[in-house]
């Protein structure tokens, strides 16, 4: 019974629509009506600026960390690593589902990447750092947040299945499910990437200016 209540609580934590509340309270608009229409940190960054985009991202990551750490409220799971990992995966998944389908925002949420990252931090911090490395490297090279998120999600599955070779079957299934989920929730982005119409985040513009300047001099 306690596990079920904590799963529900994890879902409710994930359902906190950070970007929607920020856009409505501070700007009087619904973030889902602008940009990509996504209630996530990336769209907040594009529409409301880096300050609020960063704030939304941090809160959404914390949702994953807090929800996944709810296992601490049941003493049994602090002593059994196998059962603890499985329960943490369940709690984290509930939070991610809550973020994507938030009951507090008409079931229209974000893509769950930031909350997923928070879950991975709680589960396995080293893997989380490696995924961040993949994300930042791809972002530096391409400035596509969507592509960075997709490849970081795929890298997560590779790390769990082959690098760390995790023994827990549920964790391995979860890793594959994460990669598939991120690919599925980014279908529109993938189509835009293939068409060459996906927007880039406004970072490293000085690098692009230098490249364009050199091309103009050639």
Outline:
With 218 residues, the chain is an all-alpha fold.
What do you see in this structure?
With 218 residues, the chain is mainly alpha-helical. The chain has eleven helices and no strands. The protein folds into two domains: 1-123, no CATH class; 125-212. The radius of gyration is 18 Å and the shape is globular. The chain starts with a helix and ends with a helix. 43% of the residues are buried. The model has no long low-confidence stretch (mean pLDDT 90).
Give a topology summary.
Layout: H1 2-14, H2 18-27, H3 41-48, H4 50-68, H5 81-100, H6 113-123, H7 125-142, H8 145-163, H9 169-185, H10 187-195, H11 205-217
Helix pairs in contact: 1-4, 1-5, 3-4, 4-5, 4-6, 5-6, 6-7, 7-8, 8-9
Uncertain runs are none
Number of helices: 11
Q: Name the beta content range.
A: under 5%
- Rounded mean pLDDT is 90
Structural class: mainly alpha
Number of strands: 0
Proportion of residues in helical segments: over 70%
Q: Tell me the radius of gyration.
A: 18 Å
Order of helices and strands: HHHHHHHHHHH
Outline the biggest β-sheet.
none
Count of separate structural domains: 2
Q: Termini separation (Å)?
A: 70 Å
Shape designation: globular
Tags for this model:
mainly alpha, 11 helices, 218 residues
